[in-house]
Amino acid sequence: MSEEENFDLNEFLEEREQEHELYEHHRIVVDPGQSLLRIDKFLMSRLQNVSRSKIQAAASANSILVNEEPIKPNYRVKPDDIITIVLPTPPRDTAIYPEDIPIKVVYEDDDIILVHKEAGMVVHPGFNNYTGTLINALAYHFEGQNIDRKEPSPYLVHRIDKNTSGLLVIAKNENAMASLAQQFFDHSIERKYNALVWGDFEEESGTITGNLDRNPKNRLEMTVFPDGSQGRHAVTHYRVLERFHYVTLVECQLETGRTHQIRAHMRHIGHPIFNDDTYGGNRVVKGTTFTKYKQFIDNCFEMIPRQALHAKTLGFIHPRTKEKVFFETDLPEDFSSVLDKWRRYVATKGDLLEEE
Predict the structure, then answer these.
(1) Which of 79, 84, 236, 341 lies at 20 to 30 Å from 12 by C-alpha?
(2) Active site residues per annotation
(3) Which domains does the chain have, with CATH numbers?
């Protein structure tokens, strides 16, 4: 195997490590001869490696339904009950070592913490990334915090790609984790991204619907199967924020949250994200053949040496207060700088662009 092929394999294994599901979904039909039994004890006997506290946290978060109705932790199962349960499954098999890494905290209380993740930072330790991750930084950040006589732990309920910047919410205890996991599983979390994409749009807004799965010709990327023949259902809504003739700033709202969803969906409709080296955005897709234009694009790529994608907003029901909360973070410097560069380019070349 060549060195280049080995690198691709490592990247693929890293992607697989980061991609594994964060939730388990179980459906159990109670036997006709089952005697009355508390649901936590019943589920502990039916589910492997699940603690009683985790089951009780799921019940408190309305993540356990019996006959399609949420139940309390002291519910007693009856014959023929149909039980469904959503359990968060935090990344496993990797020890978390606290590391003194600076993080940008947007909000924090006893149950949750929101951070602005910088581009280039891996979220969780995994293949080839055992240190220097956001979770390592959070473990250090939590040291010395004592809440309800327990030291909080970083419970991951969603991810963003290594080279995507923006907001992440992390639970600090099992109850918060169960509540947030249910909301992500139900797709009730409000998530909006800003993306600079190649090309202009005739419309002001639209929706992309298409199943996503690994590309059989390149396992490092996701591809769209619009006929639904394989993959998982995925929906992205977008609207135009600002036009630069050759590129466009759009807002993308996730209805589902799949691996590389926005990146793959935008490539599918002919608008790959600017400088996305996996999905074809790291070359001149739209524009002139002039050498000066190519140099301008190369300069832009140097300013933002990663895909121009930023997780800007998060809205969800707070696990403890049960109130809707909403958070927003500014674009990082590399993203805002490249937008300013495009604004100056359009202002300078305005008349010429209109003639094309």
Answers:
(1) 236
(2) 161
(3) 23-88 (3.10.290.10), 104-186 (3.30.2350.10), 191-311+333-355 (3.30.2350.10)
